[in-house]
């Protein structure tokens, strides 16, 4: 019988004895003599008597009942379970290549494209427990923000701190893609994936995106490309004010990169669409995991046994020591 967390009872049937406690209490109360008395010449010495001994005498029976409860719990054999997992996983190595150019500040997503992209990427990472995942960012140039790692807390913290403007402005898709490839090319994983997200056209960098796609194909790296942004004019910060600009997205290039690497191109015109894309990629790129769970049990009944015996015998010892004379 599981109680909470990793605590279970090996013999929960003994808890039924708790039902007898009210019966015993009622029977004990009934058989006690309510007419017991003693002759005293005067009650004046006891008027207003209120000391810690008097208070303790009033609760002596409570110790007995708590002791009985602890002894019954001991009979039920509480145990803590210690689980050990042996995991055999066919890991997938994933590099996320994210555009951080200033166009990602466009507000057709709330609050803007970059913040929504970060949040959904973090959500995606949190679901890939056994995969190595890394992060490349690109604008007018590219660099590796986080190499492949299974420490997803570190990766999520990098994603959370991302902001536009940390790189020269522009969109170097080829540079971002090649940086991600460089992190995956020596991987021994059977499945290697790049998720490339951008809202622009390739206008910077010295590496042609299709050349990078061909290199990815040679290393058996699959590229999922995501074009983010709605059609039409969108509001974007510019200088000390806001500007209405028309987004530019080279969808054909993104389709060609995905097709060349046996990946897939997605268009995200809303936050809901981008979330659905990440969910689909998560479904397509599943990790095969074999988990064997070994349970070890730690007996905890001894603590309750000692506590119960101590509480049950406490009134006897108190009556023979501290309470042996009336205060």
Q: Which band does the percent of strand residues land in?
A: 25-35%
Q: Per the principal axes of the C-alpha atoms, what is the gross shape?
A: elongated
Helix content: 25-40%
Question: Strand order of the main beta sheet, please?
Answer: 6-5-4-7-8-11
Indicate the CATH architecture of the largest domain.
3-Layer(aba) Sandwich
CATH names the topology of the largest domain as Rossmann fold
What top-tier CATH class of the largest domain fits best? Alpha Beta
Kindly state the number of beta strands: 12
Distance between the terminal alpha carbons, to the nearest Å? Answer: 48 Å
Order of helices and strands: EEHHHEEHEEHHEHEEEHEHEH
Outline the low-pLDDT stretches: none
Largest sheet: 6 strands, mixed
Please, how many domains?
2
Give average pLDDT, whole number: 83
Radius of gyration: 35 Å
- Sheet/helix structural class: alpha/beta
- The CATH homologous superfamily of the largest domain: von Willebrand factor, type A domain
Helix tally equals 10
Summarize the structure.
Helices cover 39% and strands 27% of the residues.
Describe the structure in your own words.
There is one protein chain. By secondary structure, this protein is α/β, with parallel strands linked by helices. The chain has two domains: 2-35 and 50-82 and 295-320, no CATH class; 92-286, von Willebrand factor, type A domain (Rossmann fold). The protein has ten helices and twelve strands. Strands 6-5-4-7-8-11 form a six-stranded mixed sheet, sandwiched between helices. A four-stranded antiparallel sheet has the order 1-2-3-12. Strand 7, helix 7 and strand 8 (221-228) form a beta-alpha-beta unit. The longest helix has 20 residues, at 301-320. The model has no long low-confidence stretch (mean pLDDT 83).
């Amino acid at each position: 019988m599981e109680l909470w967390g990793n605590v279970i009872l090996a013999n929960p049937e003994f808890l039924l004895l708790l039902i007898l406690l009210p019966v015993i209490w009622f029977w004990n109360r009934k058989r006690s003599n309510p007419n017991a008395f003693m002759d005293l010449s005067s009650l004046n010495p006891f008027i207003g008597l209120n000391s810690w001994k008097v208070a303790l005498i009033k609760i002596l029976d409570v110790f007995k009942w708590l002791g009985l409860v602890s002894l019954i719990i001991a009979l039920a054999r509480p145990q803590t379970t210690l689980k050990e997992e042996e995991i055999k996983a066919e890991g997938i190595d994933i590099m996320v290549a994210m555009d951080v150019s200033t166009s990602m500040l466009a507000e057709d997503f709330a609050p803007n494209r970059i913040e929504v992209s970060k949040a959904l990427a973090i959500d995606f990472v949190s679901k890939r427990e056994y995969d190595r995942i890394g992060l490349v960012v690109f604008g007018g140039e590219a660099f590796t923000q986080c190499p492949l790692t299974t420490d997803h807390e570190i990766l999520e913290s990098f994603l959370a701190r991302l902001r536009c403007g940390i790189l020269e402005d522009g969109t170097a898709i080829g540079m971002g893609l090649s940086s991600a490839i460089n992190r995956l090319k020596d991987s021994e994983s059977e499945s290697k994936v790049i998720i490339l997200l951008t809202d622009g056209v390739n206008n910077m960098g010295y590496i042609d995106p299709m050349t990078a796609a061909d290199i990815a194909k040679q290393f058996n790296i699959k590229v999922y490309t995501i074009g983010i942004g709605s059609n039409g004019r969108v509001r974007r910060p510019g200088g000390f004010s806001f500007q209405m600009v028309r987004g530019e997205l080279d969808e054909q290039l993104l389709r060609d990169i995905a097709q060349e690497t046996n990946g897939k191109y997605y268009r995200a015109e809303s936050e809901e669409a981008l979330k659905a894309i990440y969910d689909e990629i998560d479904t397509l790129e599943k990790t095969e995991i074999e988990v064997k769970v070994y349970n070890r049990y730690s007996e905890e009944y001894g603590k309750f046994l000692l506590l119960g015996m101590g509480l049950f015998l406490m009134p006897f010892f108190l009556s023979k020591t501290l309470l042996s004379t009336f205060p």
